[in-house]
What does this fold into?
Amino acid sequence: MDTRERILAKAREAFATRGYAATPLEVLAAELGLTKGAIYHHFPSKGALLTALLEESLRQAEAALAEEGTLEERLFAYAESYRRGLEPLTALSTSRAGRRGGDRTAFKAAHGAMTLALERLSAFLDGYAPGRGRELGAVFFSIVHGAYALDRHVPGYPVERVLRTGIGIFVRGLEAAFPEEGREEE
It folds into this structure.
């Protein structure tokens, strides 16, 4: 793993556990055994580092939709990819509270990434239900975010099981409502 990849991996972990605002670059550099200048060599700012993480996560989520498999399998892979990458970064970046308070740059970057992820998922789902992708994307995001929220805050709702159930119901409903659309992709 090269230095840039090490920085990205450590920043993802730190931002997702401590939060963006509560993770100074000096601390990140020390945890990596690097200087702050070494981080700046790869990323011109802390905001650029967050943006790189969000872009990488978005690419991984989109790649899951392009994989081989059934719609249900691809949507589950998308949800898992989103959970590993974009969701924890956006959840903590958009939080206006924290040990050091919120950060407007992080909020804008996270909001933009979530909006773009929703737009791209909506366009994908429009292939299955022409003209309805936007609403379906919102419903799907609600299932995904609801599963993660339950897993974090309410004991007894394991995220994988809730996701599989919710995505299965979502796909069966989509196929029942739009039986002829999008089948050539599977």
